[in-house]
Amino acid sequence: MDPTLTDLLLTPILGADPAGPRVTYYDDATGERIELSALTLANWAAKTANFLRDELGVAPGDAVRVDLPAHWQTAAVLLGAWWAGAHTVVGAADGTATTVALVTAAGLDDADESEVAALSLDPFGRPVPDLPIGVTDYATAVRVHGDAFTPSGTGPALAGRSAADVLGDARRRAADRSWDASSRVLSTAPWPDADAVVDGLVAVLAAGASLVQVSNADPAAQERRRTTEKVTASYPA
């Protein structure tokens, strides 16, 4: 069996530095700061993969749509979907026949997939209130699943491309920006589509680097953050 994109991304960084910061998330509008090690990120990805397979029926090769903002939980969802062997479609529906969607409450009206999970993205894990019947609350459901996962197959990983192709593209983009395992990348870029996900997330992980992802960035806080987080690169530059 070919390795999934998540295996290709996580195995090297788990071997090199499982406990160091891998994804640090800020929301300057709320003051939120969450930091995940590679091991914690892998645990969340495994919980998500188990949730997708065991509760939503995702099998290798199934198309799963992820319409979520740049966020640490989105990173876990994407890694979980790839680990489950899913073909991920990022953002709004693009004509691909997707069977499962993971969206925020704002995206529920446009989600006509047979299985829909909603994310509150709440830092304390609070559920989405007043969900329609038939919609699963991700925060409530995912926490009961195991934090280890063994994939059973893989299909196209992202936007119809194989895991190996996405990884090779991500490594080229990282090399063009001189990102490597010593890099600490501060990013304010959104993830509206597959290309942005490769740029802002996959390329960082493929380089073995760590990510500081900032939402609702306060320009006045950025210079101090570069110092406190030991940032070595910014994206967009």
Structure description:
It is a single chain. By secondary structure, the chain is of the alpha/beta class. The protein is about 35% helix and about 20% strand. The protein has 7 helices and 10 strands. α6 (about 195-205) links the parallel β8 and β9 (about 210-215). It is globular.
Helix and strand arrangement:
Elements: H1 5-16, E1 21-27, E2 32-37, H2 38-54, E3 63-67, H3 72-83, E4 87-90, E5 100-104, E6 115-119, E7 135-137, H4 138-142, H5 163-176, E8 184-187, H6 194-206, E9 210-215, H7 219-228, E10 233-235
Parallel strand pairs: 1-9, 3-4, 3-5, 5-6, 6-7, 8-9, 8-10
Antiparallel strand pairs: 1-2
Helix pairs in contact: 1-5, 2-3, 5-6
Structural class: alpha/beta
Rg measurement, Å: 17 Å
Tally of contiguous helical segments: 7
Proportion in β-strands: 15-25%
Note the run of SSEs as H and E. Answer: HEEHEHEEEEHHEHEHE
Provide the low-confidence segments as ranges: none
- N-to-C span: 38 Å
The total beta strand count reads 10
The biggest sheet, with number of strands, parallel, antiparallel or mixed sense and barrel status, is:
5 strands, mixed
**What does the average pLDDT come to?**
97
Widest sheet: strand ordering: 2-1-9-8-10
Helix content: 25-40%
Assign an overall shape. globular
